[in-house]
Design goal:
Number of helices of chain A: 15
Largest sheet of chain A: 8 strands, parallel
Helix content of chain A: 25-40%
Structural class of chain A: alpha/beta
Organism (chains A, B): Salicibibacter kimchii
Oligomer: homodimer
Distance between the termini of chain A: 6 Å
CATH topology of the largest domain in chain A: TIM Barrel
CATH superfamily of the largest domain in chain A: Aldolase class I
Pfam family, one (chains A, B): NMO
CATH class of the largest domain in chain A: Alpha Beta
Order of helices and strands of chain A: HEHEHEHHHEHEHEEHEHEHHEEHHH
Keywords (chains A, B): Detoxification, Flavoprotein, FMN, Monooxygenase, Nucleotide-binding, Oxidoreductase
Strand content of chain A: 5-15%
Number of domains of chain A: 2
Shape of chain A: globular
GO biological process, one term (chains A, B): response to toxic substance
Protein name (chains A, B): Probable nitronate monooxygenase
Chain lengths: ~350, ~350
C-alpha cells in the first residue's frame, strides 16, 4: 500500500522515522547510532554543544554506524549589544537568586551565552554529516549553499504554514511540521504570537502539505504506531519523535527526567520560558510555576538559558526534579522504558505494512 | 479493511462522522437533517435554546429525515447567589460599555443568564431524540438514568483522559475527545488549568482510547478525509467535525462568519473568554484583543455570555466581524463553501474504503 517516499530516498533510510535532535545531552552517540542502525534517522541535538564537542560526538556516531544520521543546530538569535546583554544577565541573575541560595551556589560569571553557529556548522560541513536539521529560523543563504555543495540533506522546523513556505523558498529539502503537542522548544520564528503558532499536529500537517511541494515530516504527540500511521494519513512523508526516544535506555536524559516522563499524564505539561527565555513544553514543576509570575521580565533566549545553567545542573545533581527542565510532549502516558531498538522494532511491527 | 464500529452500531448510522452540535444558530434543521440523511449523525446545537425552540427544531428535523440525529446541551454551571450574579452582571456591563456606545445600544436588562437544563432535557426525553450529546461536565445520575430508560445514546465531551474516565464511570455510551485544535467552547470540566487541558488531538485520542472501553470519537482539527483517516488510525471509532460544517450552505452561521473562516489561516485563532466567560477558540478580532487586557475581571460563564449578547447581535446585524464571536478551529485553510451533502460525499469518497 505504501511506497518508498521522497523522504526515504532523500535521507537514504529504510523507514521515515526520525529521532528528534533534542539538545541538552539526551542524544548520545549510542542513541543516534541505534536509531540509524535500525533503519531510521538518528539525530545529534548539538544546539548547546561547542564545535569540538560536536566533532567528537560525530566521530563517535560514525564509529557506531555506517547509516545516515543528522545533526541539529539552533539558528542564532538576534545579537544584543554588550550593554543590553549585561543588563539582561543581571535581571536574570536577580530573578533566579533565591534558587541559587537554596542550592548554595555562588553568583556565576556568565560569559558566553551562545555557541558560535558558523563554527558549529563548519564541523558539520567538514565531517560531511549526511543530514542537517535546524530550528528557530533559517540559515543564511550562504550557509544553505555550503550545505548543498556538500550534498547534505537539510531539514527545517516549521510551526505554521508561512514558516514552511519560507523554508521551501530558501531551498530547504524537507519541512518538519512541529505541532503544539511537541515537547521542548518551539521552533516558531515568524508567527504573530506564540499562542497563534500553537497549532495541533492534526491541523498543522495537512495545511503545510497543501502549501509546499517538499516532503513534510510530522512531529508533536507521535509516540507509537498509531501516531505514525495517523501522520502518514495526514499526508506526511514521515515522522519525527522526541519524547518517545527520551526515555530509551540509550538516551542521555537524566534518570530523574526519564522517571518524571514515565509517570506523567497528558495534562502535566505547560509552556515555559523560565529555563531558556524561549517558550518550550515541559512537565510543570515549581521553578516553572514560580517563575511564571515574572513572565514578562524573563530575559530573552539565549541569555536566560545561560543564567539558569548552574541551577538546572545543581537540581539534576541532587536528582531533584523541581528546578531542572523536564522537556516532554503531550503524549507522556504512551512513554515506555526500553531500548531504542525495541522501540523502533515495535513501531515497525505496528506500522510496517504502511511502508511496503 | 474496516468493519462496522461499535459507534456506528450504537448510533445506528452508516458512517461514524458526526456534525458537531454548535450552539448559536449554525445547526439549522436543514444542516442536521442533511448530514443524517447522508449517513452521518447531524446534531442540533441547542445549548442556548429555550425548551420550546428546541422542540420546534426537533420537529423540523424529524420532518426532514427519518435517520438518527443528536441534540447537544450544555451542562449547567454552578449557580451564583442573586447578589453575586448582579455584581458580575454590573462588572460585565461596565467592561463592555464602550462597545455599546459604539453601536448606540442602551444598557440592557440582563434577566435570565442560562436556560433551565432540566426543562431543555425534558424536551429531548419527550421527543425521544435518538442521541444526546453534551459538554461542560456530566449530567446528574438521575438525568443519565432517564436517558437510558428511553434508550437514548449518550455522547459526552472530554478534553483530558481523566474527564473521559469520569464519563465512562457515569455510564455515558461514547466519549468525544476534544483536541486543542477544536473551534468554539472547550468542554473542559476537571483539568487543573485550561492550558493543561489544551491537548492536541494527535496526543489526546490514543491516550483516551487506552483508558476507556467505550468508543472514542476524535474531534479538533479534522476537516477532510485525511483527518478522518488519521483519527481512525489513532484508535478513534469515528470523528466529530464542527468548523468544516460551519461554512456549508445549510449552516445558519452568519455570512460574515463564514467568510472570515473561508479566508483565515491556521494561525488566526486564539482562545478567548471575552464573549461568554468560558474559554473558546475563535478567529482573533478587536473585541477579543481589547478584552484580553481585562482577562481576570471578565465575569464567569454564563453571565458574560448574557452580557455580550446585544453587542454580538449588533455587530452581526451590521455585518461587522469585529465584535461578534467568530468560532473556528485550527483547520481553517481547509474550509470550503459547499453543501453539507457535497462535503459528506467528499469525505466518504476520500475515506470510504476505511469504512467497509
Amino acid at each position: 500500500m505504501w511506497h518508498e517516499t521522497k523522504t526515504q530516498s532523500l535521507l537514504n533510510i529504510e523507514y521515515p522515522i526520525i529521532q528528534a535532535g533534542m539538545a541538552g545531552g539526551a542524544t548520545t552517540p549510542e542513541l543516534v547510532a541505534e536509531v540509524s542502525n535500525s533503519g531510521g534517522l538518528g539525530t545529534l541535538g548539538a544546539g548547546y554543544m561547542a564545535p569540538e564537542q560536536i566533532r567528537s560526538a560525530i566521530q563517535a556516531i560514525k564509529a557506531l554506524t555506517d547509516a545516515p544520521f543528522a545533526v541539529n543546530l539552533f539558528i542564532p538569535s538576534p545579537k544584543y549589544s554588550k550593554g543590553e546583554e549585561q543588563s539582561y544577565i543581571e535581571t536574570g541573575l536577580k530573578l533566579t537568586e533565591r534558587y541559587r541560595q537554596n542550592f548554595n551556589l555562588e553568583k556565576p560569571q556568565v560569559h558566553q551565552v551562545e555557541e558560535d553557529f558558523d563554527e558549529q556548522l563548519n564541523v558539520i560541513l567538514e565531517e560531511k554529516v549526511p543530514c542537517f536539521s535546524f530550528t528557530f529560523g533559517l540559515p543564511s543563504a550562504d550557509a544553505i549553499q555550503k550545505l548543498k555543495d556538500r550534498a547534505i540533506t537539510t531539514l527545517g522546523t516549521a510551526t505554521t504554514v508561512n514558516e514552511a513556505i519560507e523554508l521551501e523558498k530558501a531551498g530547504i529539502d524537507i519541512v518538519v511540521a512541529q505541532g503544539s503537542e511537541a515537547g521542548g522548544h518551539r521552533g516558531t520564528f515568524l508567527a504573530p504570537s506564540m499562542e497563534q503558532a500553537m497549532i495541533g499536529t492534526m491541523a498543522l500537517v495537512p495545511q503545510i502539505v497543501d502549501h509546499v511541494s517538499v516532503p513534510v515530516i510530522a512531529s508533536g504527540g507521535i509516540m507509537d504506531g498509531r501516531g505514525v500511521a495517523a501522520a502518514l494519513m495526514l499526508g506526511a512523508s514521515g515522522v519525527q519523535m522526541g519524547t518517545a526516544f527520551l526515555t530509551c535506555q540509550e538516551s542521555g536524559a537524566q534518570d530523574v527526567h526519564k522517571q518524571k516522563i514515565l509517570h506523567s499524564s497528558e495534562a502535566d505539561t505547560i509552556l515555559t520560558k523560565a529555563f531558556s527565555g524561549k517558550e518550550a513544553r515541559g512537565i510543570a514543576n515549581p521553578f516553572m510555576e514560580e517563575m511564571a509570575e515574572h513572565h514578562d521580565a524573563i530575559p530573552p533566549y539565549p541569555i536566560q538559558n545561560a543564567v539558569t545553567k548552574d541551577i538546572r545542573k545543581a537540581s539534576g545533581q541532587q536528582k531533584n526534579p523541581d528546578y531542572m527542565s523536564l522537556w516532554a510532549g503531550q503524549g507522556t502516558r504512551l512513554s515506555e522504558a526500553m531500548t531504542a531498538k525495541e522501540l523502533f522494532d515495535k513501531l515497525i511491527e505496528e506500522t510496517g505494512a504502511l511502508f511496503r
